[in-house]
Amino acid sequence: MKALVSWSSGKDCAFALHEVRREGRFDVVGALTTVTDTFHRVSIHGVREEVLRAQLDAAALSPLMVPIPYPCPNDIYEQRMSEALARVRADGVTHIIFGDLYLEDVRTYREARLAGTGITPVFPLWRRPTARLARDMIAAGFEAFVATVDLARLPASFAGRAFDAAFLADLPQDVDPCGENGEFHTCVIAGPIFDGVLRVTRGETVTRDGFAYCDLLPDGAPAARG
To answer: Rounded to an integer, what distance in angstroms lies between the CA atom of residue 122 and that of residue 20?
Structure first.
C-alpha cells in the first residue's frame, strides 16, 4: 500500500516512520509538510526548509510541501491541504502516517478531514506511554535538537538542547516527555530511518508569539555513518 508520512521534522513522525518501515505494510514514498512561506520554515517547528530537505534526502522520501501564509486562517489551511490530498490520491496514495500520541481531538480532526478522500490515516504510536516512548526513541538511535519551546511551559534555555536522557531528566513533572501538548518541538538529525547524520549548527535563539526558537543552521551534506 502506498503511503505518505505527515512530516513535521520532529521525533514523533520520524519514529512513526521507523515503526511502519519495520512492519513493512506500507510503501512510504513521500513526506507531507506544511511550510510557512513567509519564513521558508516548517510550520510551528520553525525548522529551515534547507534542513527539512536534508532530512527527506537522508530518509529517501520525496517532499510534498504545502505552503501556507503567516498567520494562516484555518480555511486557507484546509483548502491547501485538501488540494494536496487530491493530488496524492490521484497518484495512488492510500494512507497517511501520523505521529500523534494521545490527543483525541487531534486524531478526530485528522480522521474527519480524510473522510471521503480515499486516504486512510494510520497512527502507529497511538496510546504508547510517552515516558517509555521517549526513552525508546533515544535507545533506537534517534538524535534530535529541541527546535521550539512554549515559553508558558518551559524556559527559553531548553531551546537548542539535545533530546536525550539529560533533557528528559530536567523536564518539569507537568511537561509531557514527548511534548505532546505542544510544550516543545524537535528536529531529528539522526536515526535508523536516515542514511547518515545531518550536520547542523545551533544558531541564535529568538522569541516570537510566546515561543522560543533555536535556529538550526544547515552545515553541509549528511555525514556517513561509522
So the answer is: 9
